[in-house]
Design brief:
single chain; about 300 residues; alpha+beta; Fumarylacetoacetate hydrolase, domain 2; 11-stranded mixed beta sheet; 6 helices; about 30% strand; globular
């Protein structure tokens, strides 16, 4: 099942014909806002699924082109992002040690929204294409063998980054948790729709140019191990997001006016814009382009505030 929010955060089930409003089905779920409603539905999904399926079959479908899609998880309780979790097309000799960081839930935006680049001296702004796991039931010290039973579904996820901020070493919070730096969507797809989350294509375009193109089979630490490791540190709750990392070789600059699109197999296509009131500019090289030219440094800024002189 594909779940979405649309227009004034009406809950929808997405079919081949469009979005069917199923808000009435979940009206009895205790909630204070759309984020709370989705979390409650995820926690009680087995009880509500038959009614949602019936409503989706019998209700009128609104064409997706005629509605405004919203983030399917407007305010998750927790966003955990795995760090350096790909083998980078075999260029890494061994997996990096398991590591992760938190991203602020307030960074969430959805399809058609805009990532806003802040007035800070970042060396470059990037967005990482990722498959994200959505937790379906509480997970505390879960063994890898049991971990997939705690997965509710999957969603496209872009991990926005403001890299190189001073002081050196004081990085992850100010780099990753900026407002608008966690685009997700357009749908939340239940786990039964994804036969093998480690056999998916992940592609990201900037202004129609393909920049990232890799498979989740290149993941260094697979989803069960990630859930095992994270849940040994903190309890994961229904609706929490676990982003599984990216292949960094295709990362490139995000700039004012860009249209960014991310598509993970079976999860729909997420489109966002980028706005930078400072109109800063970088070249369009990817990290791989730079490496092939013999450079290990990020693509340099070429104009605008904070550009090197």
């Amino acid at each position: 099942m594909r779940l979405c929010y649309f227009d004034d955060f009406r809950l929808g089930v997405v079919t081949g014909a469009g979005a069917v409003d199923v808000s009435a089905v979940v009206a009895d779920l205790p909630h204070t806002d759309p984020g709370d409603l989705m979390t409650g539905l995820i926690a009680r999904f087995d009880a509500y699924r038959p009614r949602l399926e019936l409503a989706a079959r019998s209700g009128p479908a609104l064409p997706l082109a005629g509605v405004r899609l919203r983030p399917p998880l407007p305010r998750p309780g927790n966003i955990v992002c795995m760090a350096v979790n790909y083998m980078e097309d075999g260029t890494r000799a061994a997996p990096a040690p398991l590591n992760a960081f938190h991203k602020a839930p307030g960074a969430i935006i959805g399809d058609g929204d805009t990532m806003v680049l802040p007035d800070v001296p970042a060396t470059i702004f990037e967005g990482e294409a990722e498959l994200a796991v959505v937790i379906g039931k509480p997970a505390t010290r879960v063994a890898a063998a049991d971990a997939m039973g705690h997965v509710f579904g999957y969603v496209n996820f872009i991990d926005g980054s403001a890299r190189g901020l001073p002081p050196a070493g004081n990085v992850f919070f100010q780099m990753k948790s900026r407002d608008t730096f966690a685009p997700i969507g357009p749908f939340l797809v239940t786990a039964d729709e994804v036969a093998d989350p480690h056999g998916l294509s992940v592609r990201l375009w900037v202004n129609g140019v393909l920049k990232q193109d890799f498979g989740t089979d290149d993941m260094a630490h697979r989803i069960p191990r990630c859930i095992e490791w994270v849940s040994a540190i903190q309890t994961l709750q229904p609706g929490d997001i676990l982003a599984t990392g990216t292949n960094h070789r295709g990362l490139s600059s995000f700039m004012d006016g860009d249209v960014v699109e991310l598509e993970v197999s079976g999860l729909g296509r997420l489109r966002i814009g980028v706005r930078d009131q400072l109109l800063r500019a970088w070249s369009r090289e990817t990290r791989l382009d730079r490496q092939r030219q013999g450079f290990e440094t990020p693509t340099p800024q070429i104009s605008g505030r904070y550009a090197p002189v």
